[in-house]
Each structure stands twice: as C-alpha cells, then as structure tokens.
Amino acid sequence: MKNLWQNFNIFSWGLLGATLVLQPTVAQAQYIQRSFLNPSFEQPVFGNVGQQCYVQVSPGIIPGWETTHGSVKAGTGNCSGYVSPGNVPLIEIWKTGFNGASTATIPTSAGNQFAELNAEQNSELYQNICLIKDETITFSLLHRGRSSSSVADVTNFLIGLNTNPTSTIFGTFSTTSNGTVMAQPVAQNGATIPTVSNNNAGNGWVRYTGTVPYTGASATQPVGFAAVSTAGGNNTIGNFLDEVQFAGKPVLEFTASSGGAAESETNPTTNPPKLRIVGLVPTGGISVSISVSGTAVLGTDYNTISNTSTFNISIPAGNYDGSDATSVFTIPFTVINNNVPQGVRTIVFTIQPSSSFFASSTTTCGGSPKIASSYTIYDDDFLSGKVWDDADNSANNTFTNINTGSETGTNAGGLLNAILVDSNNNVLKTTPVAADGTYTFLNVPLNQSNVKIILSTTAGTVGNTAPVPSLPSNWVNTSPLTTATFNTATNISSKDFGIEQLPDTNNVSGSTTTNPGGTNTVQVPTLSGTDPEDGNLGSSNSFKIVSLPSNGTLYYNGVAVTANQVITSYDPTKLKVDPNIDGATTITFTVAAVDKAGKEDPTPATVTMPLTALSASKPQLILVKRITRINSQNLTNIVDGRSDVSPSAANYVASPRDTDDDSSNTWPTNYLRGLINAGIVKPGDELEYTIYLLSNGLGNATSVQICDLVPVNTTFIPTAFNGLTPNDGGLSGADQGIALALGSSTPTVYLTNAQDSDRGRFYTANETVPSYCGANINGAVVVNITRSPDLPNLVKDFYGFVRFRAKVK
Question: Cα separation of 695 and 679, whole Å?
Fold first, then answer.
C-alpha cells in the first residue's frame, strides 16, 4: 500500500510546514535596498478617507516589509473593503485615531497609518538591506505603547531575525501609551543612541534616533524591530511603530558601461550615460562629480554643462529604490553636429570619489560598480540599421513592426555581414554586424540611386559582385534578407532586419509500461525542447506531431491526432496513445517543437514508448487515499496526483503511484474527492480518511481485504458513524467507526469495530493484526471487501471505498 503511505507522509509534512505554501510569493527585487521603503506604512491606503480602523494582512500587501509572524490565526480587520487573507503570517496596520492612537499632530511624515508590531504574537517587522562593511548607518523611529500609561511596551532594534540566536541587537526601546520613556534606550554592540524626553513627538509617541556601526562583510541582511514584551503581557496587543528609517549612505553607479548614437542626436536620448542611485539622500541632496575623457574632443565633438572636463550632477533629497522611473539621472551633455566625416569618437564619463555616497553595484550587494560609461558618437554621413532577434515573428516577412519592445539585437554569433549593393549588384560597402545587432556604413557615397542592403554570412568585396543573401545554420529570417532599393543621402538609418533561431526538440524515451489492452490508453511522456530565445519548451508551448505511430492511435484531449497537427498550449496530461495490439510492443512517433515565432524544429525528435504484455487473467487493484473531511467540513476537491511537481506541492504523489488517479484510470468522474495534502491542523481536530479502491485488471479480484494503519499522530474515533444505517450484521448496539461503499459515491453500509459477523473490525494499538497489515503501533482498520455469497469477487472497473475518522493528538 505504498500509495496510502505516500499520501499520508505528504499530509504529515503539511501539518508541520504548510505555512510555507500559504506565504504570498514576492518577486525578487531587481536592485539592492539601502534604506527602508514605505517607512511610514502608508502604502497601500486602507479604508475610506478619515476612517478609523485596522487591518491584518499578508506581508505581500505591504511594500517593503516582511515579518517573522507565524500563521497563528486568520487575519481580521474592520476597514471598509477588507477581506481576510486567511491563516497566513500577519502584519497589522492601524489608521490614525483608531482606539485613540493618533499621529495627527506629529510634525513630520508619519502620515495616516502605522503598524502594531504585536499583531497576534511577538514577532519582527524587517526589511532586507544591503549593508557595506565598516560603514556607519543612521536610524530613526517612532515608538508608542498601546495599553498602559505606566507599564511600557518594549521592542528591540536588530540586524538579523528574532528567530536567529546570532542576530545582533543594537538598541532596546521602552515606551508607554502616553509616551513615557520607562527606561532610556539601551545601546548595544557599538550603537550610539541619544537619550530622549517623554512624548517628544506628541500623541504618546517617542522618536528614537541613533547610529549603528556595521563591521560584517558586505551583504544583504534583515534589519528591523522585534517585540520583546507588552504592557499587559498579552502578546497580541502592543508596540506601535511609525516613520521608521534605517539608511546608510546611498549607492550609485552608471546604468550601463556603454552607449552611443549618431552625431545628429545633439541632445542624446537614445542611450546616454545615466546614473542609478539606491538609498536615502538627505535634506539638501548630494553632488556627484563626473570627469570626461576619451577620443572625442571637448568643444569640438561635444560640450559638458560646465564646458570643462569635470562637472557636477545634483541628486535631490529622496528615498531612492533604484527603479528606472524614479532613481535614474541622465548625464547632461550635448553633441556638436557637423557635415564633416569624422568616424567614430568616444566620450568616457567617470564618477569621482566622494564621502557622500558609495560607488558600488546597485544590483549586487557589495559588488563592483560601473564607475565609467562610454558614449560613442557615430558620424552622421553613413547608412545604419540593426538586426533584431525577432523571437515573436512580429515582422511577419516585412520590414515593419520588427522590434516590438522585447527583442534584442544580434549578429547571429558573429557570422553576419551587412553589405551595401549598387544598382549593378556590385558591393559599395561591407561591414560586420556588431554584437548588439547594429551595423554602420561610414562615408557612404552620396546620390547613389537604387542601392539596397543585404545580409550574408559571406563578407562582400568592394567593387565585386555581391554574395548571395544568407544566414548561419539554425537561423531563419522573419523579414526579407534584402531591402527594397533606395537612394543614398545623409542620415539614412533604421534599415533593420529580423531573424530568429530555430527550436530543438528533445528525444523522449518513456519508462517501460504495461500494455493496458483493449481501448485503454497510456500517458505519453512529457514532450520537451529548447529554444535560444524562448528557453525551455514544454507545457503551454506548441508542438507539431510530424508522424503518427504505426501501431497505435494518438489522442489529445480525447480527440484523435492527425499527422502534422500542431498542438498549441500543450498540456502533457492530455496526450495519450491507445496501442493497436494487446501485448508487448513499442510505440514510436515524431514531434517537432514550435517556438513563439511559429518556427518549427527542422529535425523532429522521436518519442519511444516500450510496452510489455499484460497477463490475460491478472487482476489488479488500485488504492488511493484522501483526506475527505476536517471537523464538520467536507472536502470536495478533485485533485490528480502528480509526480512531476515539487514534493511540497498539494498534489504530489511519487511515481509510479501518481498514475492511479482519475486522469488515467476508469474511476467514475469526480469520484476521488478530498485532498492529498490538507494543510495545517491542530490538536483536537477531527480528520476523515477515505481509502478508494478500483479493480482495473483483466481478471476478477478475489479475497480482497484492506488494512489501513491509523496515523501515529491521531486517535481512532470509534463512534464516528453510530446510529447510521444500514449495518452489515454486526452486534446490535456496538460502536460503528467504519463506513463502507460498494459501487457507490456514498457509504452503502456501516460496520462495527468489534469482531463480529460484519465485514469490518478495528484492532487497538499493539493488538495482533493480519500479517499483511504490518506493525500495529496505533490501531488498524481491517475490512473484508469480498464476501460469499453476496460479493465473492470484484469484476473489472468495480469501485468503492473504506472510511474512518481520527482525532489529532
């Protein structure tokens, strides 16, 4: 009964760790964080304007903030529009004025919302901050007690998590509900925290400030505030926080190490050098000194804002998160345009050292920064264009709509050349396409009529006949490889092309499977492939069935597949094959992956499925266990077991037992009700276990007995079905703890626990059980399914279930 144990093991894991599954998924930030974001808990806005209320929400709702709070209860709240997130880690937010706690007169940016650190337990509110070795960080916070004017709520300020004994505490703050500082802040581990006066921020709030030395290695660390105690000793009430800030010097670097544009772009906008800043810039802002060098000549090819080789960029005060919309500053300079062919010239912009910021990576904490960015000025007396990796085929064999915003430039691995050809098909100019897909023709002769540009893997020779347009192996064009003819003039650009790479399909060999015989189908192993632009191909992608099996019928979603049929939005569970012969055979067919550009693999892969013969009279019994009820709540979910998902997933069942579920057998529709992993339960909860059975062999199953061991962390409920009828001939008045269904979706008979004349019996812990049960350490439920003369055997497709209930210890 491997399947039963597998299901129970998953359920047991769920009892301990389902909070991991219920946590909201938060995307990894693209940039490091150097300061607290959303420091006053103002995002998002809860309730109506002026409403005094509170909410308990999942951490994913509050930008910037995370918590060590456990999934101890379902969140509550009374703000308009509030919906409970259920049993998840909680952050509690109050609107100003609720229960008399106000921030209305605080003369700063405390706003209209603040956090209660003790939502439902002592926990920590924190953010993950990039800390740089040997820096000194400043912090500030508003703290207020909740329930007592004479006993303080107490919180720690720390680097690390309150759940980790190696975390470093830098300060402890003790404040009552009227702002009385019961004990001056205790500075630890090198921190400096000035003494404070009572109620210094008003409304019972006290502002604490200080500095913290960080001597560890540069790394991203959790930084926050952990509840220590509350005035009344109730860990669900206490420790208000607002206007919390923790910040070192801001970090900045160039967004890119290079850029450039044509000389005609006198005010660079295409890809000029830009500074990206992350962190808190103090009042008054900071000044960033930039120097210039390179082959371009200051005053001849370009000018800076100061007309000198060093100038300053002002960054205003603000809390910068690194995003393009708010945290990027373009370097101001101008390019001098003229009609003199000058070739390519480069300006190198370099950040000069400063004590007001760190020049460091904005994407990797403590990483090497881009302190220099080069800008290339291209002569404006040329033809230019770009070759795009048109992964979605938006060009559709035209020269329009090639770049739709997501494509990148390419030179097909360095094998591509752009060739300017005259009206006699002779080469005027030839140049390799650059790695970013751009190409330029310098000093193009003016007033040439009916010229064209071609792409070729062969470099042209000026004056000779042009080579044939071509692409490297495994590349195809999405636009023509030859432009329409045109006349040369200055500043001709955007002669763009679209190409893309073909996908590659993986050969698939399925594991040896028993031929089910008759019209029964076998699951086809998952199709897969790769594409240079799209990555791994599989579920939800497209596949073309190039050739069909000669000894079987291929079905997709129950419909026979035809040769060269393209399956879009491919679902691996829907592709099956019915062997044409009942015995040992090997099913083969070919398939080609199709990428998002609609291009297919020109060398299809082979799917191989070896099948062995099934004994003509061999019976087979499938058993599947589900949790079908918790307390008084029936679980009506229909869950197919899968082995190709994470072992922590709610539908995980190890191979080969995953195929026992209703997706591949003759279970009645929607028969396997219940959950494989029912999540977290607590002592005292009542669980209902249902063991479903299906006879699906070629022969009748006889002498069928089922033994299921009661899970060790539960206690069998002997009276679960007392008073329910019909019974099965057991002792009158005996407790009934077992239900049996034969060919039905509901119980057809209820069995006593005693050793009597009905089919069922419950064995207490350590009582001698039939040998096929195994070790009886917590009790066992045994049911004789077959019985003469009323049910001597189970014919093919006969189904039913055994059910009992247990209480969590």
Answer: 30
Q: Which uninterrupted H or E stretch holds 22?
A: helix 2-22
Mean of per-residue pLDDT scores for the chain: 90
Phi first, then psi: give them for residue 470, nearest 5 degrees: -160, 165
Using an 8 Å Cβ cutoff, are 757 and 729 in contact? yes
Q: 314-340: per-residue pLDDT in tens? A: 999 999 999 999 999 999 999 998 766
pLDDT at position 369 over 90: yes
- The DSSP code for 574 is G
Nearest to 281, CA basis, from 310, 245, 257: 245
Instruction: Please tell me the distance from the alpha carbon of residue 131 to that of residue 159, in angstroms, as a whole number.
Output: 10
- For residue 74, the 8-state DSSP code is B
d(CA 669, CA 265): 67
* pLDDT value at 742 more than 60: yes
Contact 185, 209 (CB under 8 A): no
Q: What is the DSSP string of 472-514?
A: -TTEEESS-SBPPPB---TTB----EEEEEPPEEPPEEPPPEE
What pLDDT is attached to residue 9?
A: 26
Distance CA 683, CA 702 (A): 40
How many C-beta atoms surround the C-beta of residue 101 within 10 A? 22
For residue 389, which of 311, 280, 478, 468 has the smallest C-alpha distance? Answer: 478
Asked if 377 and 346 touch (Cβ cutoff 8 Å), the reply is yes
pLDDT confidence of residue 639: 87
Can you say how many angstroms the Cα of residue 36 is from the centroid of all Cα atoms in its chain? 23
Query: What gap in Å lies between CA 310 and CA 302, rounded to an integer?
Result: 13
* Cα distances (angstroms) measured from residue 526 to each of 542, 556, 598, 644: 13, 13, 20, 10
Q: Residue 68's closest CA among 130, 14, 119? A: 119
pLDDT at 262: 76
Instruction: Report the distance separating Cα 222 and Cα 94, nearest Å.
Output: 24
pLDDT mean over 512-537 = 91
Rg (alpha carbons) of the chain, rounded to whole number: 36
Tell me how far apart the alpha carbons of residues 789 and 791 are, in angstroms, rounded to a whole number.
6
Q: Is the pLDDT of residue 4 over 80?
A: no
Dihedral sign from CA coordinates of 646, 648, 651, 654: positive
H-helix or E-strand spanning residue 11: helix 2-22
DSSP 223-254: EEEEEEE-TTS-TTS--EEEEEEEE-S-EEEE
pLDDT of residue 368: 96
d(CA 595, CA 598): 5
